[in-house]
Amino acid sequence: MTNLLRLVVFTCLLLPAYGYSQDNDGFKVTTVAELFGIPWGMTFISDHALLVTERDGALALINTRTGKQKSVSGLPDDIHFQGQGGLLDVAISPDFKETAWVYFSYSKAVEGLGATTLARAKLNGLTLTAWQDLLVTQSRTRAGAHFAGRIAFDQQGHVFMSIGDRGTRANGQNLKTHAGSIIRLKLNGEIPADNPFVGDDSALAEIWSVGHRNPQGLFFNSDTQQFWSNEHGPRGGDEINLIQKGRNYGWPIISYGKEYASPFAVGEGTHKQGMEQPLKVFTPSIAPSSLMLYTGNAFPDWKGQLFSGALKLQHLNKVTLDDANHVIDETRLLSGLNERIRNVIQGPDDLIYLSTDSGKILQLSPTLNTKSQ
Q1: Residue 368 — very low, low, confident or very high, per pLDDT cuts 50/70/90?
Q2: Residue 135, strand partner residues
Q3: Catalytic residue positions?
């Protein structure tokens, strides 16, 4: 599809919403809009204005009341489209109303190779201006896998981004590469002085935590200062982790997954001194994508529960925690949609919004006179 045709369709298309309900779940699913590519990242810039990235390099602004879509211009020309790479996450700055900064992750073409990159730009109407690459990570390779790229803020002047191991397992324990880590920067891209490896010549100063395979979800709970991540295991061993400063999450030395071509476990086992244990393991793999802790009032019974999209097993995953962050229950919702759920966020209206790899933007709302389950 040409850029001109995409622009015409995005500007003029008005999609009728329709509902899908699952019996006894206490909520309904409404299709807000449908896009052409894979809607990878989503963020609200106002009550009904949803900014959505598509992995093939498009950026759309969607009115969630009408479904009307408009194209946003100003993306860079050097987005590296290969395998899982392309235009990835989007998130507004905590001071967006004052500064108009929007943060992006994407795979950047560097001498023909792809590197997960954190950037920001100002949103002026339907145009991005003042684009800045804050960190072109030291993660470039010919591989088209494990870019990660989820973004989170701690509301204390810092931004986090995940980087996968790029398909090279040893990267998870190599502190001289950003691959296999979660990084932390100031909002302007500077390195915070209290990052765990500042002053350590054997490590990159941007690194916050290491030992990750492919973290596809990040969520920082600013009320509790708890930082959550989920990531893909190999064959089994998908994880939910509580991320802490300077900690090592084990990949590839410890894992609950198995080799793809044999029945043998990856690494040395599931435990090793100095390496963190996941709070939740999924075996078989669900292939988690994005992560959200629900804090709203629309679904009061869901407060404090973790939600993740599932790509391989095609559902919305809900994990219930107790006050000590122990997993006490897991529920798999929306399996009847038969959709790879790519992203899940909470809207300003406290409703839940999802994107699917087929291009749909979905809204979950409570069923009238029905208590959420």
Answers
A1: low
A2: 118
A3: 146
- Say if pTM beats, i.e. exceeds, 0.90: yes
Please classify residue 135 by burial: count the beta carbons closer than 10 Å to its beta carbon, then call 0-12 exposed, 13-18 middle and 19+ buried: buried
Report d(CA 323, CA 255) in Å as an integer. 26
pLDDT at residue 144, as a whole number? 96
* Residue 47: how many other CB atoms lie within 10 Å: 11
Closest by CA position to 366, among listed 112, 26, 5, 16: 26
Which domains are seen in the chain, by residue range? 3-366 (2.120.10.30)
Q: Which of 338, 282, 290 is nearest to 314 (CA)?
A: 338
Query: What's the pLDDT tens digit per position in 30-48?
Result: 999 999 999 999 999 999 9
Closest listed residue to residue 273, CA positions, set 258, 254, 257: 254
In sequence order, what are the residues at sequence separation of 6 or more whose Cβ sits closer than 8 angstroms to the Cβ of residue 108?
76, 78, 79, 80, 114, 115, 116, 117, 133, 136
